[in-house]
Amino acid sequence: MLEIKEIYKNFKSHKKGIVKAVQGISFNVEPGRIFGLLGPNGAGKTTTLRIIATLLSPSKGDVLYNGKSIYTEKIEHRKRLGFVSGNTGLYDRLKPEEIVQYFGQLTGIDKKTINDRFNDIVELLDMKSILNKHCGKMSTGEKQKVSIARMMITNPDILILDEPTLGLDVLTSKTIVDFINESKKRGKTIILSTHILSEAEYLCDDIGIIHEGKLIYNGTLAKIFTNYPQQSLENIFLNLIGA
Amino acid sequence: MRWNLVKIIFKKEILDIFRDKRVIVSMIIVPLLAFPLLMVGVSYIMQLQIQKISTDVIKIGYSKNEEILKEVFHNNNIKLQKIQENSYKSLLTEKNIHFYIDVTRQNESYLFTTSFDRSKTANSIKYEKLQKSIRQFKDKKIEIALGKYNVPHSIFDIVKTKIENIASKKKMKNVFLALLLPYFLIIISLTGATYPAIDLTVGEKERGTLETLLSSPATRREIIVGKYLTTVLISIITALASLTSFTLTFKIVPASSAFSANISPVTFLISFFAIIPISMIFSALIFAISTFSKSVKEAQSYIQPLTMIVIFPAMVSFLPGIEPNMVNAFIPIINISLLLKSIFLLEINPTFLIITLSESFFLAFFFITLAFRLFDRESIIFKEE
Predict the structure, then answer these.
(1) Is the ipTM of this structure higher than 0.90?
(2) How many structural domains does chain A have?
(3) A106 and A71: one domain?
(4) Rg of chain B's alpha carbons, rounded to an integer?
(5) Which residue among A12, A87, A107 sits closest to B216, beta carbon to beta carbon?
(6) Which domain holds residue A123?
(7) Does an H or E element contain A38, and which?
(8) What CATH code is carried by the domain that includes residue A37?
(9) pLDDT, tens digit, for every residue of B146-181?
(10) What is this structure's pTM?
(11) CA–CA dist B201, B217 (Å, integer)
């Protein structure tokens, strides 16, 4: 289980002074469940996800995985972590297989396993037509498939997905959504950040709403509808952030 | 440090960067082809021009003492043209004549006053030809005068001077090369390091690929070392391409040309090894600057003044009288410039070599450590926050 315990993150800004990006956020994510992190732009979602991915260190607080702090064993944590963001860039001059090989090898997976897994991923994400393309010449949807393939090659236990369907067409979005559902069935621990509330409603088991760096709601999807009956998730979200 | 991960990063960066056509063109093809074409072209044009100037008819304007001038300038390529004394300046300006010569005679002495536009290089070359005719005329007159007193012609040789050049032919051939090549190699190493260092650091940050890489199990230091080694290699390949093209060009151009020189395989090898430390320094320095920068544009704006700073110490090889010593051995870039110069002049001072190399490795280590520190700072890696 992934436990986010009272994390804070402050940044020093020349213009704004101390920026409190995350202020005492706590939540748990269990294997086989999807935690939806919702919030307006600049609420602190990406910072929270970067802290969980060990890209940033919290100013205060800790993140535990199976009871151990992820910061005491960063490399091991990164091996079991898959991180994809809607803004994730790919190497323009490389082909999908080369990117996947690269990240697979960095995680210490042997070439044969990488090749076997890659063949499965190509089938799953319907990537055959883009195998000989350089990533720089791909559409947004094709690129996102490669990003997912890159993440899946290491078969991570924890998936951090930051706006994974951002700017994608309906068909590609469906492929990604199906993949997230499939990963949940395989017992992965998933954190999904999204602006698309219908997607959150469809995929997530638990919901956390961040506003101005604070977690203003944390509970199951079922509970949020019990607490706010006869309202859509969009209305509940807008009410909670005071819009 | 897990070197197997560094190797994976290095291999990927090499594959990635060599697929970039800009790298192939600017780092390899241009140094390989542009310099030979430029130097052979310049050498050829220079020779053609000199040949043309020496065969050109020289037009001399005069207004008096025609007999004396005819006696002095009886060469077929010299044409005497009588003009009005007050019009010579306009005729010179309009290039109707190349020179105006006014000869005055007082008893047995002659005064030749030559007017011409000295800003034209061709005129200076032509003037040498006139001087030669005047000298011959002078010798003839002196000989006649001395003959009257029975003084033998050998009086001209009463004092003789002789120069013994202790420099070998090989060394003399490389004098021009030793002035020029250190400067070029230093600037080319800098150019070679600039593009990959920017592309692999702030370029990745800008394209959004760095975040993914940082979330992989490779540590920041392993990432930097892999990328740094790629930058050093590209810088060395660029300098090597230039050195090779210079070596071949110096062999191709005619021996009479100023660009003719002989880089032996040993000199080539030593110069190649002397390039490595400067490539390491530039790669590390630009790496640190690029890591610190928020965008590729910002990195370029920091690096442009750096190029200007590097140009001047690199030019030390052009300056006469500056020799390698224990003081300039410690001054970065100047020491490498002088080291390369001494390599081409075949007079390497081992102490100077050791100090220069040690200091260069120390500087490279210092800048790469700085890059490590910058890369560890979240505020720099995620600067947009």
Answers:
(1) no
(2) 2
(3) no
(4) 30
(5) A107
(6) 88-156
(7) strand A34-38
(8) 3.40.50.300
(9) 888 888 878 878 888 898 888 877 777 778 778 888
(10) 0.82
(11) 18
